[in-house]
C-alpha cells in the first residue's frame, strides 16, 4: 500500500465493527478480560492504534505514542543511554532537545558532544564512536538537510544507534529507516496531526528498541491520553494530501520571498540557493512546509513584519493547516544562549514561516503587505 492508503486505513473494531477507532476514555479495564490493557497509562486501545499507524507509515517494526514530542525524545534517550555512554547531537537542532542533552544528560554522567552545523564536521566526529547519534533530518529553523545516506552509513560502521527527528520531513517526504536509522521521532503535534489542536509525540523503528522504550514510558508516565490519540489518527488521514499542498505552497512562497527587495535571505531546501539543495533533492521526496527568511534590518523590523500579517498567525508552533509565523530568537530558540544561537545561524532578523493549506496567493499578498511595513 502507498502512503495515502496507509494514512486512511484503520483497524476495524472487532466487537462493534466501528470503522473509525473509538476513544477508549477509561482509566482501567475489566480483569481478567482486560488483561491485555489493565490500565490506560500503560496500554490503551486508541493510543495503541496510533502507534501502529506511524509504524506502517514509516515502514517500521513497531511504533509508540507519547504525551509530547519532548516526551518521546526524553523517554527514548533515557532508555538508550546510561552514565558513561556517549551521545552526539548537533548545534543547530531544536532548543529544548539541545538543552535536554547538554544540561540534563551531561549532569547524569552521559558524555555529550555537539557537532557543528555541517555534515563533514559531524561525520568526522561519528568516526570516534558513539552509542547514540541524534539528528534532525531537516534542522530547525534554517532547514539544513542532513545527508542521511552518509550519516546512516557512518553510524552503522561504528555501531551507533541513529535517532532521527523527522518532524519537519514527515513520512511523506522522507523515511529515515530506509537510510539506516534505528528510530524515527516525530513531534506529531505538527504536520502529522496537522490542525494545531493536539500535543503528541511518536516514535517508530526496531521492535526491540521500541519495546524497551515502551517500558520506560510506562515508568516515566509520558503516556498519551486517548482523546488526542484519536485526533492525531483523524489528522493523519489527510497527511498525504495536506503535504502535497503544503510542499507546493512553500515552494512558491520561498521563490516570492527570494525575489522581494525587503528580504535579505531565504532558507528553503527547494531553492537552488540553499546550501543543502543538492542533498535535499537526493534524500527528500518533497521539500517541506517551513520557510525561514531574514528581513532587511534587525529584531525590530522582523517583529514588525510578524505582527503585521492578517492571514498568517503569529504563533510558535508549526505544521498545521493554518499558516503561522514566529521569531525564533525570542520564541522557539529563546532558551539558547547568544553564543549558541550564533553558532546555529539564528539572527535577530530571522523569521520562521510554517506554510498551511490556504490559497497561496492570499499568503503571498499577506506577506507582501507585512513586508511593506518596514
Task: Draw up the topology in text.
Elements: H1 3-8, H2 45-58, E1 62-66, H3 69-80, E2 86-90, H4 95-107, E3 111-115, H5 119-126, E4 132-136, H6 148-158, E5 161-165, H7 170-173, E6 183-187, E7 201-205, H8 207-220, H9 226-236, H10 239-258, E8 263-267, H11 277-283, E9 290-295, H12 299-306, E10 313-314, E11 324-326, H13 338-344, E12 350-354, H14 360-371
Parallel strand pairs: 2-3, 2-4, 4-5, 5-6, 10-11
Antiparallel strand pairs: 1-7, 6-7, 8-9, 9-12, 11-12
Helix pairs in contact: 2-9, 3-4, 3-8, 5-6
**Spans of at least 5 consecutive residues with low confidence:** none
Q: What would you call the shape?
A: globular
β-strand number: 12
Task: Name the CATH class of the largest domain.
Answer: Alpha Beta
Beta content: 5-15%
Helicity, in percent? 25-40%
End-to-end gap: 49 Å
**Cα-atom Rg, whole angstroms?**
20 Å
- Count of structural domains: 2
The overall pLDDT, averaged over residues, is: 95
CATH fold category name of the largest domain: Aspartate Aminotransferase, domain 2
Structural class: alpha/beta
Annotation field: number of helices? 14
The CATH superfamily of the largest domain is identified as Type I PLP-dependent aspartate aminotransferase-like (Major domain)
Q: Kindly report the oligomeric state of this protein.
A: single chain
Strand order of the largest sheet: 1-7-6-5-4-2-3
- CATH architecture annotation name of the largest domain: 3-Layer(aba) Sandwich
Largest sheet: 7 strands, mixed
In N-to-C order, the SSE pattern is HHEHEHEHEHEHEEHHHEHEHEEHEH
InterPro entries: Cys/Met-Metab_PyrdxlP-dep_enz (IPR000277), PyrdxlP-dep_Trfase (IPR015424), PyrdxlP-dep_Trfase_major (IPR015421), PyrdxlP-dep_Trfase_small (IPR015422)
Cofactor: pyridoxal 5'-phosphate
Protein name: Cystathionine gamma-synthase
Enzyme class: transferase
Amino acid at each position: 500500500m502507498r502512503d495515502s492508503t496507509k494514512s486512511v486505513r484503520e483497524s476495524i473494531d472487532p466487537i462493534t465493527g466501528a470503522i473509525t477507532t473509538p476513544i477508549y476514555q477509561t482509566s482501567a479495564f475489566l480483569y481478567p478480560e482486560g488483561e491485555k490493557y489493565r490500565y490506560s497509562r500503560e496500554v490503551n486501545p486508541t493510543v495503541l492504534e496510533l502507534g501502529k499507524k506511524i509504524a506502517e507509515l514509516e515502514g517500521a517494526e513497531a511504533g509508540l505514542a507519547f504525551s509530547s514530542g519532548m516526551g518521546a525524545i526524553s523517554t527514548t534517550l533515557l532508555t538508550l543511554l546510561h552514565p558513561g555512554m556517549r551521545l552526539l547531537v548537533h548545534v543547530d537542532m531544536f532548543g529544548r532537545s539541545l538543552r535536554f542533552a547538554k544540561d540534563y544528560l551531561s549532569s547524569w554522567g552521559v558524555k555529550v558532544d555537539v557537532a557543528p552545523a555541517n555534515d563533514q564536521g559531524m561525520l568526522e566526529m561519528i568516526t570516534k564512536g558513539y552509542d547514540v547519534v541524534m539528528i534532525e533530518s531537516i534542522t530547525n529553523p534554517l532547514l539544513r538537510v542532513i545527508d542521511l545516506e552518509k550519516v546512516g552509513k557512518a553510524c552503522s560502521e561504528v555501531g551507533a544507534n541513529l535517532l532521527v527527528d523527522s518532524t519537519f520531513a514527515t513520512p511523506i517526504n522522507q523515511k529515515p529507516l530506509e537510510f539506516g536509522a534505528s528510530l524515527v521521532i516525530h513531534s506529531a503535534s505538527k504536520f502529522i496531526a496537522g490542525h494545531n489542536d493536539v500535543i503528541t509525540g511518536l516514535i517508530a523503528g526496531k521492535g526491540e528498541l521500541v519495546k524497551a522504550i515502551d517500558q520506560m514510558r510506562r515508568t516515566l508516565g509520558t503516556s498519551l491520553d486517548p482523546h488526542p490519540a484519536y485526533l492525531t489518527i483523524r489528522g493523519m488521514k489527510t497527511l498525504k494530501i495536506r503535504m502535497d499542498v503544503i510542499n507546493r505552497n512553500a515552494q512558491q512562497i520561498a521563490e516570492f520571498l527570494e525575489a522581494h527587495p525587503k528580504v535579505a535571505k531565504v532558507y528553503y531546501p527547494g531553492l537552488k540557493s540553499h546550501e543543502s539543495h543538492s542533498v535535499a533533492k537526493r534524500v527528500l521526496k518533497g521539500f517541506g512546509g517551513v520557510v525561514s527568511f531574514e528581513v532587511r534590518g534587525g529584531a525590530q523590523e522582523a517583529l514588525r513584519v510578524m505582527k503585521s500579517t492578517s492571514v498568517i498567525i503569529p504563533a510558535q508552533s508549526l505544521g498545521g493547516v493554518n499558516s503561522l509565523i514566529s521569531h525564533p530568537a525570542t520564541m522557539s530558540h529563546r532558551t539558547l544562549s547568544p553564543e549558541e544561537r550564533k553558532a546555529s545561524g539564528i539572527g535577530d532578523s530571522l523569521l520562521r514561516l510554517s506554510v498551511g493549506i490556504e490559497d497561496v496567493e492570499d499568503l503571498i499578498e499577506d506577506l507582501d503587505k507585512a513586508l511593506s511595513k518596514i
